[in-house]
Amino acid sequence: MAAKTDKKPITMDTFLSGIWKENPVFVMLLGMCPVLAVTNSVANALAMGLATTFVLLCSNALISVLRHHIPKEVRIASYIVIIATFVTVVDYLIHAISLEIYNALGAFIQLIVANCMILGRAEAFASRNRLSGTLINGLGMGLGFTLALLCLGSVRELLGSGTLLGIPVFGEAFEPWVIMLLPPGGFFVLGVWLLLFAWIKERQIKRAAAGTGEAAAHAR
Amino acid sequence: MSTTASAEPQRPAPTSSIKLIGTLGLIALFSGLMVVSVVEFTRPYIAENHRIALERAVLEVIPGAWERREFVLTDEGVFPAGEAPGPGRTIHAGFDAEGTFKGVALEASGRGYADIIRILYGYDPACECVVGMTVLESRETPGLGDKIETDPAFVANFERLDARLAADGSGLANRIRTVAPGAAEHPWEIDGITGATISAEAIGSMIHRSADGLLPELAPHWAAFEQDIQD
Q1: A106 to B53: CB separation less than 8 angstroms, yes or no
Q2: Residue B107 within any structural domain of the chain
Q3: Does B27 touch chain A (CB under 8 A)?
Q4: What is the rounded distance in angstroms from the CA atom of residue B75 to the CA atom of residue B98?
């Protein structure tokens, strides 16, 4: 199976698909647990996004390198062990870099191991493609995931605390919408972003269809 | 018949058990080496982070403190860390720039609304009162329960909270407790927080429990803290 797709060319789409067309959060709805749980501030969202990107890149790179040597019968078990290894690595690194961020992210760092996006990329892409393509695709997916977390984190922190990265934005008169920091706020903001994404995509499809129609009319 | 047999797709031969075990074994070996290397590499940095966080918290809850020193409370008395004759409870003491003993920082914990809350509070034997409080660990609701650490009015309760011992020294003279916001009438009462009743009450009861149990043991040994810095 690997040989069939190994020579898939690397294009701009290999990188960009994770950011827009196949965004793990807004399109594929993967990794919802950290998306809803740790996006109550921009700093937490950024830290979780970068940690997930690190695990995604490292684990998928190793899986891509070993793809011809891992028998298909034990591939899922192998992927899980590899992903868990890098999650443990990132857990200790964050603990060593900043105790504040480590405490704020809590158990959600360890829960990266259960993020479907990482195992999904390993099975659907890394196990079938060369290292270079895997790294580019993984970077795009990781950035797409981080951007999505930042989209949620910035809105929730802005409305829920009146700050952005801890800096007051609205002044003292602003009464924070505490609900935005609670789980219902996460669902609400995610719903609004999904609606916005769906609307933009629909507009793009309509424009493309209109363009095709015009081209066909001119040709006639 | 032979035509039918040749039309069927050929199944690949199953991988040998030895190869499966070997693959998983090698991946597990790599995983183990990687994790142990990272644990060893980050150990001093993590320890240093915890030391800095503890130092910061101790100096925060003891106003005027400049330096932190560790002591051990045993059945035989209070000793500087490393000189204790046996195991005991670690006590963090704060000293100012001139080396004057300013108070001790004590840890307390109890169940809040979401989970266990861990706090550090400062006690000054000169005024027999709690002089500061900081939250070490809490998973209280953001925007509500976490006001125990962000609400300036609530934190101000712990600038001079009466915690004097009873005449017989067996426990606190008065029960430290959290009351409704604005209802505190006595210096040992804490004004609560609207919307965070359980969290605020948890702080009051955990400080009372900790001080009531520990201060009677510490009270006979205050001189030992001042003695150490003079030595």
Answers
A1: no
A2: yes
A3: yes
A4: 30
